[in-house]
Amino acid sequence: MNRSSYYKWLERKDDFNEEDKWIQDTIMNFHDLLDGILGYRRMTLFINRTYELNYNVKRIRRHMRELGVSSAIRRKKKNYLRHKPEHVGQNVLNREFKASRPNEKWLTDVTEYKIIGSTKKLYLSAVLDLYDNSVVAYRMGTSNNNNLVFNTFEDAIKSHPECENILFHSDRGFQYTNRVFKKKLDDNKFIQSMSRVGRCIDNGPMEAFWGVMEVEMYKLNKFYSIEQLKMAIEEYITFYNNHRYQPVLKGLTPMELRNQALNLIQY
């Protein structure tokens, strides 16, 4: 090392100032408030949008590293049951996970959650819009049966009665390969699409949503009853649709982006 460099290092001033201290305090406040679900990208969004600032993600990431703060890492394993399908649709979606407008492409799936100290499980069925990642409709039940899926679909239709020609993608679960469900799609002029066997990535955004929800809601809490879990799911979906800023949505929430697009369509 050069002598001059060594003495320059000795005489350096601490660059950490009051603004940096405020940033770190704010990071810890959001981290505690939202149970540690924010990574550096969404932490930057929350700080910038809440306080009308324009911090760079690199600066926020540096402070989060100094604080030892990070979001949880999610891992999900899903088990599939063998069944004989009555109707199998083609993979029309073909991993084209972009939509040009709301209600163009919907995804659906069912996931399960366990209750501590019990053999009971809660099943959640949901429909997701690919345009804005919003949850269009959802139902919960203690049985993974046809009615759970059928009622979720009917809720989505009731809230969007004007929609036709929607591409409706699912996996090959027994509810979706049911002839009754195929008739429901046909009656509402929907286009059916299905993932290929053993290809979870064909329904990738839906799987990603389950993963996010598992990390940000389910794993951060302990659930000892069905009712407690139901309440947490309802609160999280409300938060997800209306308050969870997403970098992939240009820093907006799903409903903000959805309302912007629908207003443009109206005019």
Radius of gyration: 23 Å
In percent, how helical is the residue content? Answer: 40-55%
If strands are numbered along the chain, what order do they take across the biggest sheet? 3-2-1-4-5
Going by helix content, strand content and strand pairing, the class is alpha/beta
Number of helices: 9
Largest sheet: 5 strands, mixed
Dominant shape? elongated
What proportion strand? Answer: 5-15%
Q: What distance separates the N and C termini? A: 67 Å
The total count of strands amounts to 5
Quaternary state of this entry equals single chain
Could you report the average pLDDT, rounded to the nearest whole number? 90
Low-pLDDT windows of residues: none
Briefly characterize the structure.
This protein is an alpha/beta fold and 267 residues long. The chain has helices spanning 3-10, 18-33, 40-51, 57-67, 146-159, 179-187, 204-218, 226-242, 254-266; strands spanning 105-114, 121-129, 135-141, 167-170, 191-194.
Describe it.
By secondary structure, this protein is of the alpha/beta class. The chain has nine helices and five strands. A hairpin with a 6-residue loop joins strand 1 and strand 2 (121-129). It is elongated. The N and C termini lie far apart (67 Å).
Question: What is the secondary structure topology, with strand pairs?
Answer:
Elements: H1 3-10, H2 18-33, H3 40-51, H4 57-67, E1 105-114, E2 121-129, E3 135-141, H5 146-159, E4 167-170, H6 179-187, E5 191-194, H7 204-218, H8 226-242, H9 254-266
